[in-house]
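Dear all,

This email documents one entry for the complex benchmark we are building for the journal club exercise. For each entry we list the sequence lines for every component of the assembly. Then comes the predicted three-dimensional structure of the complex as a token string, followed by one or two observations. Please use this as the template for your own entries, and keep the labels exactly as they appear.
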Amino acid sequence: MIPAGFEYHRPTDMASAIGLLQAHGDEARVVAGGHSLIPMMKLRMASLSHLVDLQGIAELRGIELGADVIRIGAMTTQNELITHEGLAQAVPILREAALQIADPQVRYVGTIGGNVANGDPGNDMPGLMQCLDASYEVVGPDGTRTIAAREFYDSAYFTARSDEEILTRITLPCPAAGTGYAYEKQKRKIGDYATAAAAVLFGPGGASIAMTNLADTPVWSAEAGAALAAGDTEGAVSAALAAIDPQEDMRGPIEFKKHVAGVVLRRAIDRALSRAAG
Amino acid sequence: MKDDVATPEERSASLKGMGCSRKRVEDVRFTQGRGNYVDDIKLDGMLFGDFVRSPYAHARVVSIDTEAAMKVPGVVAVLTAKDLEPLGLHWMPTLAGDKQMVLADGKVLFQGQEVAYVIAKDRYAAADGVEAVEVEYDELPVLTDPFEALKSDVVLREDLAGQTEGAHGPRKHHNHIFTWEQGDKDATEAVLAGADVVAEEMVYYHRTHPCPLETCGCVASMDKVTGKLTLHGTFQAPHAIRTVVSLISGIAEHNIRVISPDIGGGFGNKVGAYAGYVCSVVASIVTGKPVKWVENRMDNLMSTAFARDYWMQGKIAATKEGKITGLWCHTTADHGGFDACADPTKFPAGFMNICTGSYDIPTAYLAVDGVYTNKAPGGVAYRCSFRVTEAAYFIERMIEVLAIKLNMDAAELRRINFIRKDQFPYQSALGWEYDSGDYHTAWDKALAAVGYVDLRKEQAQRLEDFKSGKTRKLMGIGLTHFTEIVGAGPVKNCDILGLGMFDSCEIRIHPTGSAIARLGTISQGQGHATTFAQILASEIGISADDITIEEGDTDTAPYGLGTYGSRSTPVAGAATAMAGRKIRAKAQMIAAYLLEVHDDDVEFDVDRFVVKGAPDRFKTMKELAFASYNQAIPGLEPGLEAVSYYDPPNMTYPFGAYICVMDLDVDTGEHEIRKFYALDDCGTRINPMIIEGQVHGGATEGYAIAMGQEIAYDDMGNHKTATLMDFFLPTSWETPTYETDFTVTPSPHHPIGAKGVGESPNVGSVPAFSNAVHDAFRPFGLTQSHMPHDHWRVWRIARDLGLHG
């Protein structure tokens, strides 16, 4: 459980960080909270010569609440998401989900940017970001571009971000007033990834459904959201379940995961509907 | 006349003796980060060792190339079996009469097996060196199922080829280790053949792991000038380790000093001898420097001793009224690649023959077959006394299965079969003499405390609600009445590697009336420094606060067999009381001399000797301590010291009644522990607070084992649970709330009547949790479903019973 040797860099601005990535190519990776990358390095499943720590870049922090959109710096910790009062009011599902991630110690250090950028299918935020229709700002040598969360994930650990780009900011549209929400997660214990998790929004702006750890990417289903918006809960559930592709692991066999996915999703839908205004 | 106005009760209270919930003296340092664990030990010039481990469960080792590793900066040496062979240390004896590779000798038998040992200037260089060692393997067919192993042509232990006789009798097959039989087979089969009712079931107690918070480790330091080896390590039996090291290394025993410092939990995992100890000693001899080896979590879960893995086929016979007439059990025990079980020599399946439990079963038969497979070796007693958990789980499941067959309430079935109070001492059909018990009193108290009758009514209502679609949660009531057998043990039948399982205490009273006592045991969190001082306080009248307890240094402590199997209080606790009584006897003579009366004319009174009939004439223990150092008393040597080596006349038999109430979600398999009531009878209670802590800790381990914890392998022998993500250790969030209770039935043969308690909660809670799961599904026809009852397995029960619609 000791990583191979590496150079540690702690740049204080984006240009330096990108410069380091350019200089070292695939020998370099950025690290945010480190809760995904560092264990992989300790297991020597990831071997990097250069680790670029983003902790020193002030512009990557902070939460801006706009009238229609919310911008969250990539280095914002899960704990900061949980304790930010305005954010909890504007997007309560974010707090509900963040509280189900890992444990308090991890949440003090783990960041939203690291959670969404790593492409780990076990992470909770990617599915939630797809449910919320968030977009990610990535900055690279050729400037800044924006990628929709729903377009970001190709397969486990493979994303639309290129090696020389850094995910800097997340932009969320504010859900319309009166939107019902729920993040429902079944797990074996505190600190575990989901056996199955579902994010549901239901309100005047329509409905949206995404699921976590049930395929090698998060699963957002347009059909499921449309069915729910039309009041067809069972249609929504079957559409979402048709899109998942869980794998067997110590949490259980495929058949179990598919069953639990349905249960968790129905519970999330019920809770979201009960919270929706009117 | 002395000015002493305290009443006897006040004087007694100030001693903080037995029965007092004295705060743990150890916790001052533990809660302030001032503990001294093996990994805190730093010696000048210390090197670090780390293992190259096998990625395969069964393979030939074709070649090991260490050249690249030797070039890694900081790497000092790499040891392989070839380096150890000239020393005769490439294999080592196990506690079970088998032998085990220290480093892979031509082949590997389990994933994670030690293949080469890299020694480097720091941990980082050692880890880099491990990466750089190139090993070529040739994969062999893998056997992970003990039943398949007994039929397979694949020979796991080629070193034993042709050996039809093992350490415990004949071997029936090349992957067979031993057969151990107890009881009367013919009589039992006759009872089964003629019984009104026979219930039969396969009860599997899955493989798990003690997983102490601190992993195993050591620091070996060979001083080439003095010729002395100092071995610091996480040893539950430091004295036995010293003897073993001497026997296998050839270093004279007086030149070996073994020190167990603070230990962060053992639970049986730290009883055996591991490759890391042998390699570190060799490395220190070779390099002339101290060498530290500390496992990481994956090393610990993959390679050091596992627990359980018993397939127990049972048959239980009864009259139609429910009176049990016979018990039959055949166990297939998966021991992994080497038989490294930690059991007393004559007991290859431990005390599995306590499997008649709390019940008066006149006829019984037990056979255990040990089998080699491609899994890690071990088979230690994980917070239990040598396979007692397996035995208790087996009988407590069989009782439930019989209750189903008889259509009886399982509480009543237990009650009509309990050994009665007037039957003690009770001779069991499988050979034990139970010392004392009052099971009916404990059972009635437990049932009343939880409101058993009302719980059954609530459960019936819940079932109605479930059937009518009002709820998707079933309710289970898990009952257990367990009887343990602990305190190994009498030298006449208990030894480890020929060392009788006595234990010891040596007491030295200082001139000012304080004291130090040293024992042959070693605390790993049990609180010995607190409780042994309490035993002594009551025995010798010196406050527990004035008594230092020291353990774990073989140069200073008297020889003992260590701490495991709930043996510290039954054996070393008895030695402590007996040594205390020797102190008191001498103090009585000093008092009589000083008070100018005959020895028989003074009597002990809490903290002093008093002239009979003249309460004003006395000498306190403090005064007597000083007198022992400054008075020339005819016929008495100066000083006040005593030592006792205690060979217990019998085991002790703690028991308890545990009841668990659980809700189970049939759709997700999730559970909620609504109530957990634990009544323990451990005889005389030394420190009620520590007992309660032990019950909480053991029941939490039991909860983990029953509800999710396992060591799992796939068909290729890949270890699937090598991290704490998949190996279930509950956090405070998952941990149930416990209600503790007690009765007191002292052991008649123990000097203070104490029986030991540390392991009861693990033994008793696992069947209570498991029975609750089974009980919830009983109305739908479930008789047996193997642990752990994690979400997907509970879900599978519901699916198989057609509860998902």
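Observations: Residues 180-275 of chain A form a domain with the Enolase-like; domain 1 fold (CATH 3.30.390.50). The radius of gyration of chain A is 18 Å.
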